[in-house]
Every structure is written in C-alpha cells, then in structure tokens.
Write a structure and sequence with these properties.
The structure is a single chain. The protein is mainly beta. The chain is built from 1 helix and 10 strands. The strands form 3 sheets. It has a 5-stranded antiparallel β-sheet with strand order 3-2-1-4-5, with no helix packed on it. Strand 4 and strand 5 form a beta hairpin. The protein is elongated.
Length: 134
C-alpha cells in the first residue's frame, strides 16, 4: 500500500560486462569488476573457441543477482576491407579461412586433408607429371 510506494526500486545491474581473461580454457577466469573463475565458455553452434590469456571477452550475467556468468565472445579483429555478410575465421599463428561475398574462399596456413577430396564433383587425382615411368 502506501509503504510499498515509499520503497526505492532496486538498482539496475549490468547484464553483460567486458572483461579480460586470466585463465584460458573451457573453464575461464575473467576479471570484470573482480576476478571470477571457472566460467563456462559458449559460442555459436558448430564453432569451437577457447579464449587466450589477456583477451578482451564479453561476460554475460544471469540468474538472481547476476551470479551465474559465462564467457560468450571476444573483441573482433576483422581484416581490412571486409564486407558485410563475409565470414572470417582466424586462429593463432596467422591461419585463417575467409569466405568472401563473391564466392571466393581464401585459406591461409598449412592445410591437412583427411578423407576424400573432390574437385568439381570428381575425385581428386594428384598429378604424377615428371615422375619416373610417366
């Protein structure tokens, strides 16, 4: 009644914070307003990522009082000239997969293929040009 109107509303809390990882891995440690450890790491379906130490990450808070937290993303590093709709996957050491809007796929780094490889729908047969007997 009149007393309920006299009470102050609860202060809003942040539902997300930018933090810095202190412990890398599946159970990350992150400093936001203080250090929190053993945070699960989430990402989009079909994509696995683990933050490195010192990386700026987004921490989502939930549950009563925001005590349930998880690491969900990191600050992006898009290549110069990247267009809307393009996808750029990158990792340590400079390796990358770049899906361009014109249909081009750029691969950077050492490539290891396990399984079969088809080119234009045909099984790939390596050239034996220049070897003995041919």
């Amino acid at each position: 009644m009149w007393l309920s109107r006299q009470m102050k509303p609860a202060m809003p809390t942040a539902d997300a914070d930018l933090g810095v990882t202190t412990i890398a891995g599946e159970q990350a440690g992150v400093v936001t307003r203080g250090e929190v450890r053993a945070l699960p790491v989430y990402g989009p379906g079909g994509y696995a990522w683990l933050p490195e130490n010192g990386m700026a990450v987004l921490v989502i808070k939930g549950g009563p009082g925001g005590e349930e937290q998880c690491v969900t993303a990191a600050r992006q590093s898009a290549p110069a000239g990247m267009q809307p709709g393009e996808v750029y996957l990158y990792g340590p050491g400079g390796n990358a997969v770049y899906l361009r809007r014109n249909g081009t796929i750029e691969l950077r780094g050492s490539i290891a293929i396990e399984g079969s490889l088809s080119v234009n729908g045909e099984p790939y047969k390596p050239c034996t040009c220049g070897t003995e007997g041919t």
